[in-house]
Amino acid sequence: MRSSDTVAGSLSSYMDLEKWVRPDHPLPVMLGLVKGALEDLSAAFDAL
After folding, report:
1. Alpha-carbon distance 39 to 10, whole Å?
2. Do 13 and 7 contact (CB within 8 A), yes or no?
3. pTM of the predicted model, to two decimals?
4. 3-class DSSP state for residue 29?
5. Structural contact between residues 35 and 25, judged by C-beta atoms closer than 8 angstroms
6. How many CB atoms lie within 10 A of CB 21?
7. pLDDT digits (tens, 9 = 90+) for 5-33
8. pLDDT: which is higher, 6 or 39
9. Do the beta carbons of residue 46 and residue 38 sit within 8 Å?
């Protein structure tokens, strides 16, 4: 038998990761490329 599932506090938190990444880091460029690719594939995803 299992005990009750109670959580004492939050196990996760939200952080704006874009705030923590330097502007000269390659991640912002990669994010733009990924967002563009996902927008291009949006119609294909909708069809699924």
Report:
1. 33
2. no
3. 0.53
4. helix
5. no
6. 13
7. 665 566 667 778 778 888 899 998 999 99
8. 39
9. no
